[in-house]
Amino acid sequence: MAMGVGPLLLVFMLGLGLTPPTLAQDSPTYKQFLNQHYDPRPSGRNSKYCEKMMERRGPSDILMALQRTHPLLLLLLLTLLGLGLIQPSYGQHAMYQRFLRQHVDLQVTSGDDRYCNVMMQRRRMTIRQCKPFNTFIHEDIGNILNICNTSNIPCKNGRMNCHEGVVQVTDCRETGGSSVPNCRYRAKSSTRRIVIACEGNPEVPVHMDK
User: Fold this and answer.
1) Active-site positions?
2) Is this structure's pTM higher than 0.85?
3) What's the CA gap between 112 and 190, in Å, rounded?
4) Top-level CATH class of 89-208?
5) Cis status, amide bond into 181, omega within 30 of 0
6) What's the CA gap between 134 and 149, in Å, rounded?
């Protein structure tokens, strides 16, 4: 016996998961939506109404989740600060960033003439003129920061914020006669004593003094 089109269509619709409205109205998600976002008889649309309704309906699940998570995030931040994994003042110190750009290269342990020619241009020290002399430090940043924890010594300008340490370096000295942008340098790699000026709290290197 052939079945009519109407029953077949109904079975097909139910198979797609289309739920009758009466069943959807019993859904906890639907009830939560009504509780948080629907008011059939609003008593006003001003700030007082909003405060009253937010107090009556309670905070949303998202807000409650944020309130539960906030102490955990704070604890995580304090833990990272305690371990020294987050150093907010370092990244905010413009002179420190300049020092890193001009004087720190962790990728190599020494360099030749070609290294100096490439790095001096790459680190933007040959834009307006050929910088006569520059030193690249080939040490871990932690080792460089530790130099700032050593005893203070006088700087060339007379200030007492300099510190000294022994590190691996490549000194790049301009050969003379070259011009921007084709500056040419002679390289000298060695392990030697350097003097750097440090500032800030905690102290970070901001100037290569010697």
Assistant:
1) 103, 207
2) no
3) 11
4) alpha beta
5) yes
6) 24
Inter-residue contact 162 to 152 (CB < 8 Å): yes
Structure tokens at 135: 């030193």
CB burial readout 93-106, b (16+ within 10 A) else e? beebeebbebbbbe
At 13, the pLDDT band (50, 70, 90 cuts) reads very low
Helix intervals (H) in 131-210: 141-147
Structural contact between residues 156 and 210, judged by C-beta atoms closer than 8 angstroms: yes
Q: Where are the domains of the chain?
A: 42-86, 89-208
Instruction: Report which of residues 137 and 51 the model is more confident about.
Output: 137
Assigned token pair, 180:
């921007």
**What are the tens digits of pLDDT across the range 73-108?**
656 655 655 555 545 454 447 999 999 999 999 999
